[in-house]
Specification:
- It is a single chain.
- 54% of the residues lie in helices and 12% in strands.
- With 224 residues, the protein is of the alpha/beta class.
- A 5-stranded parallel β-sheet has the order 2-3-1-4-5.
- 33% of the residues are buried.
- The structure holds Pyrrolo-dC.
């Protein structure tokens, strides 16, 4: 049932490390007509007027990380703001994982200059104070770094082939600090943790756990 475009849909952020199965999780919900799926616009990051910013970032991180994260944040903001015709909206990642996981890592590792970090942080704070982008629920696909590292190698996305395990471990810790240890109060949504180490055959049971929570909330939104 299409809802008026102006009412706020029940919004879910699907978060997790590289290779944690976010796209697979989202595809599982393709079957429901009352849910709008917004997957990560990786193809936009791979081709902005012919420039593959994702590849540039992985090839020369110090030079391109700021530019890449700046564009990623713009594409995420566009998705946060996109009108949703359904009672439920599932988004792959968010401006929160952009800031608390990826940009945070780049600042701590010295990949970006403190002045570059300051600019990205000012953009993030302005958006937080002026635009409502909160989630009603965060689904955290919790994984073990070594498991997703093997998946990344098997998936063989060309730009990611040089990603070291240490990077995956650092991103994991930042996801845990945010979603398990709840170190950032700006994003107070409840977190539903899914064991995403499970391989495809077993994980459907895990998805059903979240399906119930998400769809029940969808009914609440529609009945509101
Ligand atoms: C919000 C956000 C998503 C995101 C993805 N990535 C990278 C990780 C993967 O290699 C690829 C697709 O998620 O993009 C990144 O470097 N910075 C990001 N920030």
């Amino acid at each position: 049932c299409a809802m008026a475009m102006n009412s706020k849909p029940f919004t879910v952020f699907v978060e997790g490390n590289i290779g944690s199965g976010k796209t697979t999780f989202l595809e599982h919900f393709r079957q429901f007509e009352d849910i709008t799926l917004l997957t990560e616009p990786v193809e936009e990051w791979r081709n902005l007027k012919g420039w593959n910013l994702l590849d540039l970032m992985y090839k020369d991180t110090a030079k391109w990380a700021m530019t890449f994260q700046s564009y990623v944040s713009l594409t995420m903001l566009e998705m946060h703001q996109r009108p949703t015709p359904t009672p439920v909206k599932l988004m792959e990642r968010s401006l929160y994982s952009a800031r608390y996981c990826f940009v945070e890592h780049m600042m701590r590792s010295g990949t970006i200059h403190p002045a570059e970090f300051a600019v990205l942080d000012e953009w993030f704070k302005f958006i937080m104070n002026h635009i409502h982008i909160d989630a009603d629920l965060i689904v955290y696909l919790k994984t073990t770094p070594s498991v997703v590292y093997e998946r990344i190698k098997k998936r063989a996305r060309s730009e990611e082939q040089c990603v070291p395990l240490s990077y995956i471990e650092e991103l994991h810790k930042l996801h845990e600090d945010w979603l398990i240890n709840r170190q950032h109060a700006e994003c107070p949504a409840p977190v539903l943790v899914i064991d995403a180490d499970l391989d495809l055959s077993q994980i459907t049971e895990e998805y059903k756990k979240s399906e119930h929570q998400i769809l029940r909330k969808a009914v609440d939104v529609v009945m509101r």
